[in-house]
Amino acid sequence: MRLIKYFLIILVSTSVWASTQPAEEVLFKPSVEQRKRSNLATRFLANWHYKDTRLNDELSVKIFDRYLELLDPNYSFFLADDIETFAPYRLHMDDALQHADPTPAYEMFNVYVDRVHERVKYAREQLKNPMDFTIDESYEWDRSDTKWANTEAELDEFWRQRVKNDYLRLRLAGKEDEAIVETLDDRYKNLDRRITELNSDDIFQFFMNSYAQSIEPHTAYMSPRSSENFEISMRLSLEGIGALLGRENEYTSIASVVPGGPADKEGSLKAGDRVTAVGQGQEGKMQDVIGWRVDDVVDLIRGPKHTIVRLEVLPEDTGIDGPTTIIKIVRDEVKLEEQAAKSRIIEVPGEGEEMIKVGVIDLPVFYLDFNGRARNLPDYRSSTRDVRKLIDDMKAEGIEGLVVDLRNNGGGSLLEATTLTGLFIDEGPVVQVRNSSGRISTEQDTDPGMAWKGPLAVLVNRYSASASEIFAAAIQDYGRGVIIGETTFGKGTVQNLVDLDDYAKPSDSGKMGQLKITMAQFFRVNGGSTQNKGVEPDIRFPSAGDPEDYGERSLDNALPWTSISSASFEPEGDLNRLVAVAEFRYQDRIADDQEFNWLLSDVAEFNLNKDKKEVSLLETTRRQEMDEDKAKAEARKAAREDNGPLLEDADALADAGEPVEVTIDEGTEEAADEEEEDDRPDLLLRESARIVGDMVVLSGDEPALAKQFSALNKNRVPESLN
């Protein structure tokens, strides 16, 4: 009966909606090939995934809601009546998948196309009306609380304010009225055009991803076109800017910047930034990309090496009313060499006049030349090999402590995470892996001895993920080093790529696409998972926002944190006392540090405003906010110039007790020039080195450490800090 009911819904809905479509409109419907893809992909997702998920009514509701969210993430197009019309599908998305008939998704999409056309028409009409920016009103840019409008008049009012805000943003950026109207009219026309250019394959991918990501965030279906783009992105010869793009409401956002790529070397583009326009060459017209599909933006950004692409960017820490910046990037290849580990030495004050040399390893990714290793080449590259050599070089320079910088390191080779950990422990397990059948295996460091036995810190942030979390967790569990920074991303799962073409029938025509499926989960040697919770730092740096609002834990369908039995391992030591005293010294030191006070001020301001979902449409108010931000930035720049640069001649600053950076690796003059032009010090790295310097002093003086720890427990200031 349920199957009959399901097909009746399709027939009735099709007849109603078809009658409302303009004659020239093309109604989307699934092809025979897409039905075959649906059947094959559904079998894999239902039977192979690490998470045991039944294709039933409960999952159907999640698929339905996620599909709507994918189409209309900010509740800007559909009306409440549309959602009510779709309601019969809410409990039948599972039937559509089980019977390889994704027709409901196509029916819903056909209505979506109509609504987009209607909104674009209305927005373009608004551009013909005069804009009055002296009226005290606000634009609610985030409609997650409001949801879908009940009436067309209500949705019209939202779009009137949206167009007005778009206009005001360009006006504040210095554009003339005529140019503003032209830019926005092009933006809205492009939205209309892109909807028209979508094809049946696109809709199929939307629907299958709604299913895949209703199971778990890192599971995805890639159409043949997306599969090709993915393969291109995995080649080291990719010619582009070296950035992974994602979607944030109507914006294309920077999900991550590829270490060693052109964007990384230019230095301005950051994860979380939103791209609003793209221009070609030095003078090419900026193409507005707000509302574009991600793969269309990728096509604009990608291009031949040595050519210039210009990105207009809304920074992550700026609201939608904030000023944009233009970033100019020269396209090039992303090479393994440019992602290699690098080192430097920072000198920090010790006791009295003594200066302590602290080595820094900057590791952008856990890399390994698999082919070279398989062929047993004597000089194959790996992060472990390179880091070992850098440590040996810095030991020869006399370092007494070491910082491993894993900020923005999104992971890489599991083998490398294991062997790199082995440089800092003697022998033992590094990470446990449980597959979908429940079988647990352990990755071991079997190489006795350590490349570095001294004081160690691992610097992480919210974008440190996967292999980075395995390494940091092992260092923490063994008591081998101190973790400093932010709570990490929380990705503790393993994905495999399945090429559906390999499982297609000989009679099937066309390509099937690929699935990325979560197949296993990582666990620390202490039995806890890195999944969801991430690795929590021993010493926490100031961080904007709530850790619950980013990373894996911010996703409603992420795998939960869980635990298994601890592996058999011997900790290297107990750092609790050392961490407590080092953190006290750090807190005392930053109390009078101007850069840290600025950072704390920025964090407080961000936290105060992060939940705001509307922006003023008063031009005077917006200009005042811009002027205040500009004045603050100029005042800080002037203060830095008055205080002198952070990095100067080593001998001169040694007398002043200031930290000094000395680069071990040979650098280019261009890189040095860029470093001089950036007047913002890397105070988090600087302070990490200071903390390691404290560890060096305290580790060498056990009575002093015991005395200061005892003083902390008695809630008084250690005498050495008076």
Task: Summarize the SSE layout with pairings.
Blueprint: H1 2-20, H2 32-48, H3 57-71, H4 80-86, H5 93-98, H6 103-126, E1 138-140, H7 152-172, H8 177-197, H9 200-215, E2 220-222, H10 224-234, E3 239-240, E4 243-248, E5 251-257, H11 262-266, E6 274-280, E7 287-288, H12 294-301, E8 308-314, E9 325-330, E10 332-333, E11 342-349, E12 355-362, H13 370-374, H14 383-396, E13 401-405, H15 414-421, E14 428-435, E15 440-445, E16 456-460, H16 467-477, E17 482-485, E18 493-499, E19 514-523, E20 539-540, H17 576-590, H18 594-609, E21 614-616, H19 619-643, H20 650-656, E22 660-663, H21 669-677, H22 683-699, H23 702-713
Parallel strand pairs: 12-13, 13-16, 16-17, 17-20
Antiparallel strand pairs: 1-21, 2-19, 3-10, 4-5, 5-6, 6-7, 6-8, 8-9, 11-12, 11-22, 14-15, 14-19, 18-19
Helix pairs in contact: 1-6, 2-9, 3-9, 6-7, 6-8, 7-8, 14-15, 15-16, 17-22, 17-23
Terminal Cα span: 81 Å
Shape: globular
Low-confidence stretches: 1-24, 232-238, 645-679
CATH class of the largest domain: Alpha Beta
Looking at CATH, the homologous superfamily of the largest domain is 2-enoyl-CoA Hydratase, Chain A, domain 1
**Major sheet: order of its strands?**
20-17-16-13-12-11-22
CATH topology of the largest domain: 2-enoyl-CoA Hydratase, Chain A, domain 1
Number of strands: 22
Whole-number tally of structural domains: 4
Broad structural category = alpha+beta
Strand content: 15-25%
Average pLDDT confidence is: 84
Give the fraction of residues assigned to helices. Answer: 40-55%
CATH architectural arrangement of the largest domain: Alpha-Beta Complex
